[in-house]
Design a protein that fits this description.
By secondary structure, the chain is an alpha+beta fold. The protein is 34% helix and 26% strand.
């Protein structure tokens, strides 16, 4: 019997960034190829993998998706199995996600069901976004499922907890990068320059008015500037400045409105400071919207099992590119309690490994149920 705790720890040591998951892909393939090969087919897409397990008498296809990439973050957990890749870490739980998927795959291959089951190992969830191009790929279109679901660890919930809800679960998100270019010069002659540090500071203040003055108070949205860079030394007026941030909204319409307002404000900075500006929205993720019928059916199934703590949770401003799958395919996502004092994307995130068995049981049992009914 496979030691999935060992699998998780081995995966945790080799985090890789989006579309660079070469060691991760090979690790996954090595595991998959040890299974009875007459029971499944494999397709590769970039650094991702699609595995179709043949049903005994298929009438539909059920899909389960996991993400496989890590984050550009230096690990500070002091674990014996910490990342061996400098500056990279599985700080969002994708190592646990993959482990649960491999366990469910192994069980499904060895315990045939009626319908086909597709396991989706998706790269680049953290950026630049692998879900949408994978969804649009020929490989995925050839094995297009009738239902798809996924999970995400939740450090704030205790082990044994499964939390979800019909409707909106995760927000629409977009990266935000703004570059300002003016005219630098000697600090003693400011009148001969266009100072981009001052321009950037003015812009940050203006961006904060978008939520308070342009979004319905009964709606919710976030514009956060998390990083500003500009200038070279203390006595030179900055020719360039860069703002890096994120946008999060509870509807696609609000995302459009926020971006329009950002563009207007940036154009005003160009005029007011006689400079040039460029906006890059980076990776954009569509909201995770759980289909009501499919989610309620899953909730009822989990409640009937009797060994999970089911919570009907609130929506969150987190982002997940799994939303693109749900935009096109019926399905849902749920939170898996991982019980850790540090949150997602933290350098000290160390999920309680007890969540692995809980996730394996939840995913495997539901796949068996759906593929036989």
């Amino acid at each position: 019997m496979t030691d999935f705790l060992k699998v998780r720890r081995e995966l945790h040591q080799i985090p890789e960034l989006g579309f660079q998951e070469f060691k991760t892909q090979q690790y996954l393939l090595n595991f998959i190829q040890q299974l009875p090969e007459d029971r499944f087919e494999i397709k590769l897409w970039k650094t991702g993998i699609l595995v179709k397990v043949h049903g005994m008498n298929p009438t539909k296809m059920i899909a389960y998706r996991t993400d496989i990439d890590g984050l550009p973050l230096s690990e500070e957990t002091a674990l014996a199995f910490s990342s061996v890749h400098d500056g990279k870490m599985h700080a969002c739980g994708h190592d646990i996600h993959m482990t649960i998927a491999l366990a469910a795959l192994e069980h499904t291959v060895n315990h045939p069901v009626r319908d086909d089951i597709l396991f989706v190992f998706q790269p680049a969830e953290e950026g630049p976004g692998g879900a949408l191009p994978m969804l649009q790929s020929d490989a995925f279109k050839e094995w297009y499922p009738d239902l798809i679901f996924a999970l995400h660890i939740a450090p704030e919930h205790r082990v044994g907890t499964i939390a979800t809800k019909p409707g909106l679960l995760f927000a629409n998100t977009s990266e935000l990068f703004i570059d300002l270019v003016g005219k630098g010069g000697h600090a003693a002659y400011p009148h001969k320059t266009n100072d981009m540090v001052v321009a950037a500071c003015q812009l940050v203040g203006q961006l904060q008015t978008i939520i308070s003055r342009n979004i319905d108070p009964l709606d919710s949205a976030v514009v956060t500037i998390g990083k500003i860079t500009g200038g070279t030394v203390q006595n030179i007026i900055a020719e360039k400045a860069r703002l890096e941030g994120t946008i999060r909204t509870l509807s696609p319409e609000s995302m459009t409105k926020v971006k329009q307002r950002i563009e207007n404000l940036v154009h005003g900075i160009e005029i007011g400071f006689e400079c040039k500006a460029k906006i890059d929205y980076g990776a954009n993720y569509y909201q995770v919207y759980n289909r009501e019928q499919e989610t309620e059916e899953f909730i009822q199934f989990i409640e009937q099992q009797g060994n999970f703590n089911l919570i009907r949770c609130e929506k969150a401003m987190t982002g997940e590119d799994f939303g693109y799958f749900l935009k096109n395919i019926p399905g849902f996502m749920f939170w898996l309690g991982a019980e850790c004092e540090y949150g997602l994307h933290h350098s000290k995130l160390s999920p309680n490994e007890g969540c692995i068995d809980v996730g394996i049981h939840a995913v495997t049992s539901y796949l068996q149920y759906k593929a036989n009914n």
